[in-house]
Specification:
alpha/beta, six-stranded parallel sheet, six-stranded mixed sheet, 11 helices, globular
């Protein structure tokens, strides 16, 4: 009799265990649903927030995020090295990436990977080798941002600084298209360290002229660049400590903040979706100025 009860309880225990799904198992012992590779820009708040937005959703969906940042603004060694070993990434389910770096895009093609790809920050270039393979693009409306910045600047002339790739490029040239090209000078900067020298040369050539400065990325806003623009109205995109300080002391009139957390979350959802949406997804933006700098809406980007 004891033997029969032993067999009964053993079989009952097995039935209970097999009826448990993965949601019932503590997360630390669950098997991941897969890995999402994120190929990001340099390690600044903007890209960290995109990563955070994706990771928060990934944790809930039991996916792992493997984030690889560029070594510097123009140095992509870490990204290329990761792609060269992409076959070693366990259970790779998708890629979220910043586009427009030809070396990286060509490397992805050479790997022959077939996982879904979602791009963030900027639309793919029309000649990109990934044009037919990218599932979705998740961006702020950079054209609209550029037009709105242009409309809010009262000075006739504007100087705007941007990178050669990424959303900042789109925003700067949108500012230029919104006005007569002769009234908007676009300075393309290879990396953040070059911004000061490029701006210094511009200021020296335009002494005693009236113009406003528009930084299309917060990476260029620092004590050195701002000291060159004393007496000028300055506008920017993104938010970081120098921008917050500039708004507080009125040297920066406002900044436009793309919802980077939303960008990361939407990109993750798109890359794992079973019914992919191939249309471009636009994230919200918020304008920060001295009147709303301390609101919860803005503070979420400054923590």
């Amino acid at each position: 009799m004891k033997k029969r009860f032993g067999l009964f309880f053993a079989s009952l225990g097995m039935a209970f265990l097999t009826s448990c799904n993965q949601e019932d198992i503590p997360k630390e012992t669950q098997t991941s649903n897969g890995t999402i590779l994120m190929l990001l820009g340099s390690k600044i708040a903007y890209w960290d927030q995109i990563y955070t937005g994706a990771k928060e959703v990934a944790d809930k969906e039991n996916y792992k995020i493997m984030a690889v940042y560029r070594d510097a603004d123009t140095v992509n060694t870490s990204v290329l090295k990761t792609l060269s070993g992409i076959s070693d990434i366990p259970n790779l389910k998708g890629i979220i990436m910043m586009p427009s770096d030809k070396a990286i895009e060509n490397m992805i093609v050479l790997t022959g990977t077939k996982v879904p790809i979602v791009v963030v920050d900027q639309k793919l270039h029309e000649n990109s080798p990934l044009q037919t393979t990218v599932r979705t693009t998740v961006v702020a409306d950079n054209e609209k941002i550029g037009k709105e910045i242009s409309a809010k600047i009262k000075e006739k002339r504007i100087v705007t600084l941007c990178y050669a790739i990424g959303g900042s490029y789109d925003r700067s040239f949108a500012i230029q298209r919104a006005r007569d090209k002769a009234n908007v000078d676009v300075i393309i900067v290879r990396d953040a360290g070059e911004a000061k020298d490029s701006l210094e040369n511009y200021v020296a050539r335009h002494k005693d002229e009236e113009y406003a400065a528009a930084f299309s990325t917060g990476s260029f806003v620092n004590e050195e660049t701002m000291s060159l623009l004393k007496g000028k109205n300055v506008y920017t995109v993104d938010i970081n400590e120098p921008i917050v300080n500039g708004i507080k002391d009125s040297t920066i009139q406002f900044t436009v903040i793309p919802n980077t957390f939303e960008m990361g979350a939407k990109a993750f959802n798109s890359v794992i979706s079973k019914t992919p949406n191939t249309s471009i997804e636009i994230v919200s933006v918020v304008y920060a100025n001295s009147g709303n700098l301390h609101t919860e809406e803005i503070q979420m980007f400054t923590k």
